[in-house]
Amino acid sequence: MNLPIVRAIACACAFTAAGIEAAPLPSAVGGGAPSVQQLTSESILSQDKLHDKAAQEWGLTSKEYERYQEVMQGPRGVYSPGLDPLTALGIEARSDSERRRFAELQVQAERQRVDRELAYQRAYDEAYQRLFPGINAIEISASPSTRAGSGSGPALEGNGRMALFVKDDCLPCIDQVKRLQASQTPFDLYFVGSQNDDERIRRWAILAGVDPSSVKSRLITLNHDQGRWIRLGLGGSLPAAVTQVNGSWRRQ
Question: Is the pTM value of this prediction over 0.70?
Fold first, then answer.
């Protein structure tokens, strides 16, 4: 073999090897693509911020919110999917003091929610009257006349429909109306303590999200209680959904 050619080939190989070893690797600091470790760290930091924000919105500590997430991954999440943190933690409380704390937080949170909804309701009422003066957004059903000589007020009519008794300042009452309306269940609503004030029932119905078209079609009727609830004698707290079975009214 020609010795000069061999030497030339050896020099070329050595130069190439040296060049490869000397080539610098891309640097993330110098503007290259971020490393997997950096992306993971940023993702964890972002999740922590969202976690802390959610806990703060519910008035909880970070550990309490973690406990909520653990609770909802267990049987409670199956029994009650989508349950809010305060209710879930209160139901699954590990001590009386925990239960009291979450109950107080929930009362405060719901009071704030109601205040905001009432403020919006007032703004809605003002806007409606300004745009449609003299026209009621939701009509109140006409009450039947009291039978002469009865002196006891109108009786509850057994028309095969559900009768729902509600009152003011009753969050469960609003929730019950929303559930029935979502399921398209026909019902007659009786407002206990309305003092025959149509506007009072109308404002409450707007707050509860009653659809005016459902009232117009009589899928839902809005009525003054006029003592019907007391005369039924069923007792218990409101809301009360009652139906007539074999001539007798029973709570559902």
Answer: no
